[in-house]
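The step that takes the researchers longest sounds almost clerical: writing a folded protein down as plain text. The outcome of that step, for a single protein, is printed below.
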Amino acid sequence: MKLQNITYSIPWNLLLISLGSIIFGVGLKAIVIPNGMIMGGFSGAGILIYYYTNIFTPGIWYLILNIPVFIFGWLFISRRFLFYSLYGAIILTIVIDLIQFEIPLKDLTLATLAGGTIVGAGAGIVFRSLGSLGGNDIISIILNQKFGFRIGTYNFCFNCILFLFSFGMLDTSLILYSMAMSYITSQVIEYFMMLFSERKMIIIIADDPRKITDEIFRKLKIGVTFIKGEGAYTGKQRDIIMTVVNTFQLKRIEEITFTIEPDALLITENTFNVLGKGFSKRKVY
C-alpha cells in the first residue's frame, strides 16, 4: 500500500487519534490540572466549569460542550470527519477520567513547558489524522479548510480571549502561566503539522545547467524543471534550474552543483507544504 493511501486508511487514523488522545490526556490530567492551570479551547472551558461547579468531571464537561460543535462539523466538513472526531472526543474523555496519577512538577515554569509540549504533541498527532479531538479543533479545521487560517494560530488567538475572561476568577499568575503554556502548545502543534511535509525549493543559476541536471537525475532520481531566464545586465538567455527536495537531499544537491560549477548560484527557499505527484496528497476531511 502506498504511503499516500495509508493516510486515508481507517486503522491508521484510529491509531493516530488514539495515541494523540492518550498523550493529550496525560498532559492535561497529570500536569495542567494538578498545578491549577487551565487549557485553552473547550478543554479549558470544561476545566473552568469543573473548578467552579465541582459537578461531573472535566472529561464529562468536555463531552457536553462538544454537542453543538459536532453539528457544525456535520454540516461544514464531512460525516467521516465527524465520526473520527466523535471517536477522539470519547477516547479523550475516557483518558481524562481514567488517569489518576500526577507528574510531580512543583516549579510552575517547568510545568508550563512540560504541559505545553505534551498537550501540543498529542493535539498535533491527532491533527495528522482525518479527525480531531472535537471542540475548538473542529472550528479551527473549518477555518483552515475554508479560509486557510493556520490551526495553531487560531487556537492561540482563541485561547487568549478565553484567558482574558478568566482574570478576576483565577489567580493572575496561573493565568499568565497558562497563556505561556498555550503559546508553547500552538507552536508544538504547528511543528507536528509540518512534520515530514517540509520541503526545500531549490533554484540554481549556472552556466552549464544541463550537466548539473544530468547528475541530479542520475544520483537522486528526482524531477527538475527549467525556467527560462535572461540576465538583466548581459541580456544572455539561460535555463534556470528549479526543483523541490526534502531536507536530506538538500546537501546532495549542493554537492552536485558546486562540484560541477563552483561559481554557481544556489537559492534555497522553505516550502512547508507541497501537494502533487511524488509529494503529499491533498488532505480531504
In short: The mean pLDDT is 81. The longest strand covers residues 237-245.
